[in-house]
Structure formats: structure tokens, C-alpha cells
Automatic annotation (TrEMBL):
GO cellular component: adherens junction; apical junction complex; apical plasma membrane; cortical actin cytoskeleton
First-listed, main subcellular location of the protein, grouped into a coarse class: cytoplasm
PANTHER family per record: APICAL PROTEIN/SHROOM-RELATED, PROTEIN SHROOM2
Localization of this protein: Cytoplasm, Cytoskeleton
GO annotation, biological process: actin filament organization
Residues in the signal sequence: 1-21
Key words of the record: Cytoplasm, Cytoskeleton, Signal
GO molecular function: actin filament binding
Lineage, top ranks: Eukaryota, Metazoa, Chordata, Craniata, Vertebrata
Designated name of the protein: ASD2 domain-containing protein
InterPro entries given in the database record: ASD2_dom, Shroom_fam
Pfam families, per the entry: ASD2
Source superkingdom: Eukaryota
Keyword Cell cycle (UniProt): no
Length: 133
């Protein structure tokens, strides 16, 4: 159950971090693409700023969940220490360290695949008019 919770919280943190980055990029693009007169409107609370604020709050909540899981991990480790051999306990400790790292790496790879697919689609779409000639 603990490992399942860890998976969920790490994935939640990654998801919220990604969404927060997207909103910040959208806000930055809005800042650069608007005229100086309209920029003052960007600083009034709008849907993007509200979305950013909500995502920041959710990200903070998820970090708190992760901190609670870290405390739980210590408790689980202490319980397992009384039942497992040193070697098996070391294997468990290694597994736990690698679990989050592998989830993060998997997400990075999925993001790269998605980006590559988008670039391939854009490239294919840009070649379509040339095929008709």
C-alpha cells in the first residue's frame, strides 16, 4: 500500500509540475506578445493567473503528501528491519531509492516521445502542400 501511495504522489507531483510550467509559459508568452498598454491587463487576476495560483496550491499540497510519505517510509523501514535480513533490507532500501527515480525518468521519456510525435506531425503537415504540386 505504501509503495502504491508513493507511485501516486510522485506521479501527481510530476503532473502538477508539468501543468504549472505550461501555465507559466503561457503567461510569459502573453507578456511578450501583448502591447505595453495591454500588459497592465495581464497583471490583473485573469483565468491564467488564477489557474497558476490553484496549481501552486495543489503542488504545495502534493509536496506535503510526499513529506508525510517520507515519514511513513521511515516507519515502514523500521518495521521491516525487525523482519528482514540485512541483505534483504538493503535491497528494499535500494528499491525505494530507485522507484521514484525511475518514475521520473519514465515521465521524461514519455515527454520526449510526445514532443517527437508533435514535431513529426508538424514536419509531415509542412510537407503536405509540397506533395500536391
Amino acid at each position: 500500500m505504501f509503495i502504491g501511495d508513493l507511485d501516486k504522489v510522485v506521479n501527481l507531483l510530476l503532473l502538477l509540475s508539468g501543468r504549472l510550467a505550461q501555465v507559466e509559459n503561457a503567461l510569459n508568452n502573453l507578456d511578450y506578445s501583448t502591447s505595453p498598454g495591454d500588459r497592465s491587463l495581464c497583471f490583473s487576476p485573469g483565468p491564467q493567473q488564477l489557474k497558476k495560483w490553484v496549481l501552486i496550491q495543489e503542488h504545495e499540497d502534493a509536496k506535503e503528501l510526499k513529506e508525510n510519505l517520507d515519514c511513513q517510509e521511515c516507519i515502514v523501514f523500521d518495521i521491516l528491519a525487525s523482519y528482514l535480513s540485512e541483505e534483504t533490507l538493503a535491497d528494499y532500501e535500494h528499491f525505494m531509492k530507485m522507484k521514484s527515480a525511475l518514475i521520473i525518468e519514465q515521465q521524461e521519456l514519455e515527454d520526449k516521445i510526445h514532443l517527437g510525435e508533435e514535431q513529426l506531425k508538424c514536419l509531415f503537415d509542412s510537407l503536405q502542400p509540397e506533395r500536391g504540386k
